[in-house]
Design goal:
single chain, rod-shaped, mainly beta, 447 residues, 1 helix, five-stranded antiparallel beta sheet, seven-stranded antiparallel beta sheet
């Protein structure tokens, strides 16, 4: 049974139980010749016999001389993950039907003890046997037949003792409880030619299926669809950060108002629990819309987005753009242009509204070659506007809304004209000023 290194045969069987959210591993360690480490020694021969095919515990006569026999077995243990649970270990010992020794005999109650110090096949003898622990000794009942197999021997506590003391192998000493004449237990060793009866250690354990530690979501305005992509969850509780929640794994929720909410999800299964929180900001979606007034080649745009956006982006259909809320743009060529307004909220969400406008003539804002001779202030205005001619001239004023409908008119005036606009709706207005010198078009914004 001599070998320079210990090789472990692992016959692994992986069983998955979704209902318990755990994976069970079953590993059989059954070393054969050249891989095993087991030995037999007795008081007569003194030196360990490491090449025999039997593991024997006995008190017998050897060539007429009484002697006590014991066997030593060592298995290399597999590494166990930190999250392992429910570890069990069992040992199978099979009667050696081909042994030179008689089979099981006498009042042969046996015991298995854990070896607690290193030992070598080459130097083992009766005088230097390794120490064994008196903790968790496993007892083998008296045999009921001379060829009885001892299977499923519970070594769980012995193996746990070994792992808890950070060892990577387990040594077992097999001996009789009462070492008096004519008692024996005879089992096959790892060198037995029949691999079916070699000793085997079976270790099983569960590993918890860890839950995913993140959730995702898709939002649109105040609406939010949450996702937790883990089929191993058993129980789940959502807290939307405003006193409302859900027990659904992938809930859909509409927040009552825009703002930032701390959304938390608590998930658990039979062996794991996670709590995940994320700050989520939701915003009302601004619905882009606009109106406009065309003055020749000049266009006055009125932003009608509701609710108001955080920022705006205008495209005038000719590679020009603006980020002004209510822009004014003058086209250089006659034609039809697609004007688009994109309105953004603080969450980065947006809507876009487009409309075709047609420029049919290229007219200056100043008609009949008149120079700019009036000013309107304040502009924008909310309550009143003042119209002031820059020279002393008699003039008549007419106010039109963005649809071209006359909303106010004033007889000929000289000097500053003050107009109440408190009843006007918000938007752009056109003021037509007529004097004996010609007509001037002005505009103002009612805020």
């Amino acid at each position: 049974m001599k070998t320079n290194q210990i090789v472990v045969m692992l016959l692994g069987l992986l069983l998955c139980f979704n209902q318990s959210n755990a994976q069970q591993f079953v590993i059989e360690i059954k070393p054969g010749p050249g891989q095993n480490k087991d030995a037999y020694l007795n008081t007569v021969n003194d030196t360990a016999q490491s090449t025999v095919q039997s593991n024997i515990a006995s008190t017998w006569t050897y060539y007429g001389e009484p002697g006590i026999g014991r066997s030593f077995i060592q298995f290399a243990l597999p590494q166990i993950p930190e999250n392992a649970s429910n570890l069990t270990a069992s040992l199978n010992l099979y009667h050696d039907y081909s042994s030179f020794h008689l089979g099981h005999s006498g009042d042969n109650e046996g015991k298995i003890e854990r070896i607690i110090e290193s030992w070598s096949l080459n130097t083992l003898n009766w005088q230097n046997q390794p120490d064994v622990s008196s903790n968790n000794v496993v007892y083998l009942p008296t045999s009921g037949a001379s060829d009885q197999n001892y299977t499923g021997i519970n070594l769980t506590e012995l193996v746990l003792d070994c792992y808890n003391q950070s060892e990577d192998s387990i040594g077992l000493r097999l001996s009789l409880v009462t070492e008096e004449l004519y008692r024996s237990l005879v089992f096959a060793s790892g060198d037995h030619p029949d691999e079916n009866i070699r000793p085997s250690l079976i270790i099983s354990y569960d590993t918890c299926i860890q839950l995913v530690e993140t959730f995702s979501y898709e939002k649109s305005g105040l609406q939010c669809q949450f996702y937790y992509d883990d089929n191993n969850v058993s129980d789940i509780v959502w807290d939307f950060g405003n006193g409302y929640g859900s027990f659904v794994q992938n809930p859909y929720y509409v927040f009552p108002e825009e703002g930032t909410y701390l959304v938390c999800m608590h998930a658990s299964n039979s062996c794991d629990t996670v709590t995940i929180c994320q700050e989520i900001t939701v915003c009302n979606i601004p619905i882009a819309d606009f109106d406009y007034v065309i003055e020749g080649s000049n266009v006055l745009f009125t932003n009608l987005t509701e609710p108001e956006g955080d920022s705006y982006y205008w495209e005038f259909g000719n590679d020009y753009f603006s980020i002004v809320t209510n822009p004014e743009f003058e086209y250089e060529n006659i034609g039809t242009y697609e004007v688009c307004l994109t309105s953004y909220n603080t969450c980065g969400e947006s809507t876009t509204y487009c409309e075709l406008i047609t420029i049919s003539e290229l007219l200056s804002k100043i008609r009949n070659n008149e120079i700019e001779s009036y000013k309107i202030f304040p502009n924008p205005a909310s309550d009143i506007i003042s119209i002031e001619p820059l020279e002393e001239v008699a003039y008549r004023a007419e106010v039109y809304n963005s649809s071209g409908i006359l909303v106010d008119s004033f007889d000929t005036e000289i000097g500053i004209l003050t107009v109440s606009i408190s009843n006007y709706t918000s938007g752009y207005y056109i003021v037509k000023l007529v004097s004996d010198k010609g007509m001037i078009i002005k505009k103002f914004l009612k805020s």
